[in-house]
Amino acid sequence: MSADTTKTILWILSILYGILIVGSFFPIMMSPFLFDAGATKGRWVTFFSIVAFPILALISIIAAWWLFRHGHYSAAKWVFTLPALSIIGFFVGFSMP
């Protein structure tokens, strides 16, 4: 893909992740209440997934723009899939006993 298309994708995803980072503050504040019924492996996975999402999103925004600036357009788009690990971990945590 061209640099212009990649730049458009990066702008859209950067804005989206920025909104999601701000929106994740409330779930992060409420995440300790997951352990009210006791700590299990699934709850720990869910907890760390909730806490890790804004960190991974911020890292992906910074890394993607750095890669774009250095001409690695394909890698810049793939870096934006990093927060998906947190989302997958969230659903895996809820499915664990």
Short description:
Helices cover 78% and strands 0% of the residues. The chain is mainly alpha-helical and 97 residues long.
Describe the structure in your own words.
The chain is mainly alpha-helical. The protein has one domain (3-31, 43-95). 78% of the residues lie in helices and 0% in strands. It contains five helices and no strands. Helix 1 packs antiparallel against helix 3 (41-69), helix 3 (41-69) runs antiparallel to helix 4 and helix 3 runs antiparallel to helix 5 (83-95). The chain is elongated. The chain starts with a helix and ends with a helix. The relative contact order is 0.19. Keywords: Membrane, Transmembrane, Transmembrane helix. The chain crosses the membrane at residues 9-35, 47-68, 75-96.
Structural class by secondary-structure content: mainly alpha
Q: What is the end-to-end distance?
A: 43 Å
- Helical proportion, percent range: over 70%
Q: Give a count of the beta strands, DSSP E runs of length 2 or more.
A: 0
Low-confidence runs (pLDDT<50, min 5 residues)?
Answer: none
Write the element-wise H/E pattern from the N-terminal end onward. HHHHH
Shape verdict: elongated
Helical run tally: 5
Question: Mind describing the biggest β-sheet?
Answer: none
